[in-house]
């Protein structure tokens, strides 16, 4: 069990019989009132985000989350109102495929190419049964720029940034010197450009 002030960012808890990821937490100590921990929580089943304040007297159960590795195979677009299908395999065994719902995926695959690995977050449901609650991409990835607007003379005076499209279809803001065909490194959590790895 966690005390109210141990419910910190990147921890996983059971709250109202559901698993939640703690996105933000801030312990405030006002003189007249008892300390509280104001948190923003993301439901790992539904994706819902809520704000909740934990009091000093609260005890919170830590979720039994384990990590494994999955290989992202492909996405099959949904037709006629159906959801997109996301397919993975574990342990490199492509014959044992796992389909995950878009709610579980979120935007975790924005910077992930097909056949690349991601972390899967599992929760123990008892009786030797596990459920995948979410996936996380690598901290940094290297992707090729597929579309970049041309540089216009004088652009650098206005901040020196432009928006480019990557091979996964995601768009990011980069310095003006990045061109189509360049390979760049991206921080997946923030979507920020890190550096150019290879020049076209």
Shape: globular
Detail the poorly predicted runs.
Answer: none
Mean pLDDT: 87
Q: Strand tally, please?
A: 16
CATH arch. level architecture of the largest domain = Beta Barrel
What top-tier CATH class of the largest domain fits best?
Mainly Beta
Order of helices and strands: EEEEEEEEEHEEEEEEE
Features:
200 residues, mainly beta, SH3 type barrels, OB fold (Dihydrolipoamide Acetyltransferase, E2P), six-stranded antiparallel sheet, five-stranded antiparallel sheet
Description:
Helix content is 2%, strand content 52%. The chain is built from 1 helix and 16 strands. The model has no long low-confidence stretch (mean pLDDT 87). The strands form 3 sheets. Strands 1-6-2-3-4-5 form a 6-stranded antiparallel beta sheet, with no helix packed on it. The protein has a 5-stranded antiparallel beta sheet with strand order 9-8-7-10-11. A 5-stranded antiparallel beta sheet has the order 14-13-12-15-16, with no helix packed on it. The chain has 3 domains: 2-62, SH3 type barrels (Roll); 65-136, Nucleic acid-binding proteins (OB fold (Dihydrolipoamide Acetyltransferase, E2P), Beta Barrel); 140-198, Nucleic acid-binding proteins (OB fold (Dihydrolipoamide Acetyltransferase, E2P)), CATH 2.40.50.140. With 200 residues, the protein is an all-beta fold. The chain starts with a strand and ends with a strand.
Write the layout of secondary structure elements.
Blueprint: E1 2-3, E2 12-15, E3 18-28, E4 36-43, E5 49-55, E6 59-62, E7 65-76, E8 85-90, E9 97-100, H1 102-105, E10 117-124, E11 130-136, E12 140-147, E13 161-166, E14 171-175, E15 183-187, E16 192-198
Antiparallel strand pairs: 1-6, 2-3, 2-6, 3-4, 4-5, 7-8, 7-10, 8-9, 10-11, 12-13, 12-15, 13-14, 15-16
